[in-house]
Amino acid sequence: MILRNISFRSISTTTRMLRDVPKYDMRTDAITNAATSIAPLDVLLDTAWVRHHLYMIGSDLVRLTLYQKLSHLIEFGGGPVIKNLVYEMSSFLKQELGSDRSSTTTAAQQLRDLVYFGSNVGVVAPAVYRRYNIPDFRWIYITIGYMVISQPNDLAEDVINRVIDIYINTRNSPYLSKTRAEPSTIVSVAKDYYKHVPINYNKLYSNTKSRYITLQETKDYKIMLPPLPRLKNKETLVKALIHKELYRAWLEPNHKFAQRLLELNVDLDDSSTKDTLKYELSFLDGLGDLFLARESSNLLYKFKGVPPSDDNGTFSTRTYNQLRIILATNTLLSKLAIAYKLHEGLSDKRVHDLLIKSYVPNIGKWEDPDFNDDDCRRYEQEFLADYFEQYIGALFLEQPEVAQHFISEIYENILRSISDVHKLTGKERKKFHHPYDYRAWSVDVIGRNIWR
Prior knowledge:
Elements: E1 22-25, E2 30-33, H1 41-44, H2 48-69, H3 74-96, H4 106-116, H5 126-130, H6 136-150, H7 153-170, H8 185-196, H9 201-205, E3 211-214, E4 222-225, H10 234-240, H11 247-250, H12 256-263, H13 271-280, H14 284-304, H15 317-328, H16 330-339, H17 349-359, H18 374-398, H19 400-415, H20 426-432, H21 438-446
Antiparallel strand pairs: 1-2, 3-4
Helix pairs in contact: 2-3, 2-6, 2-7, 2-14, 3-13, 4-6, 4-7, 6-7, 10-18, 14-15, 14-18, 14-19, 16-18, 18-19
């Protein structure tokens, strides 16, 4: 039996998530909200996976905020530079807040003041942090995670911004000191392109046909998808619909974009021209990636309390992490991109031809038993997964609550596809500490076992 009748209660903001812990009622096959208050931090920390969940909420939100704050660096090094700085901050915190609490640098002291909050907020009392062998750099994420669910929004945001400011002011990266530059000639031509290039709105937003993805093994079961929310800003929409590598189509001599650059005496073969265009298109997928990570953490807290998960205490940190991996795999995200026809939304024939001929020529063969080139399949799926991340990044940038509802519904429908045929029994259930064979389920959903 496929568990199709479970109804998740949507939660519009992260700060409500742990207040509205869903409880499953077997008699009514529905979920209701039983909790109305937040347990004290020391009570939540007694459960290992909840402790890990608070850490993930905090770290995901800090990374997402920093990525947005560094958006102006797109013109200096593109999304990869911003991503590197975002993940480098984790190394910075580990370096400044070592496990032995011996660092005496100014940054370390400033960060510890935020970790323990002293008398300002009182989230972490000395008796609490002494009870757990948790490094300070993890404490800072855990306390931010707890503040998100228990304190006013602006308080958590203020602490996150202070952590980011300490990082930026301490690091000597040449990028962090850069300020926004005036738009270049190349960027101006790109903006004109965004304004005039046609969009295939019918393929993207028509609701005459249902959107769905299918499981690998059980082709007869469709995972239904909600309609694609419409992006309102044309420039943002175009950026969401063209992969950052496909700027090369713009530089083909017979493309109007290239012809316009030549009229302005811009060298099409110059590396700075190529870099400018690639950087121009490389922000949204990184933003979408971080947003999806945050939303998968949010949803898995709800998922833990309802079938087909379990509520008997065996849900573990390992289960939590592996389910996050499944929800973020390129195989799944590429299926979603294809279902929503994101790779076909831009009506630029030269861009689309370059995509099909040079980057995803085997798009229709991935599930063919005779197609055995796994490296090619993985590359093409990763390429198309970027389209979904780009669109979600754009949607989050423009309409954050709409993006949250949209992704929540998709992820809920995917998790709901776990069926009774995936149940573990006896020794296997005790060995893996969860009631369902997520290994078999991951093969059904994405075609391979990623369960370690």
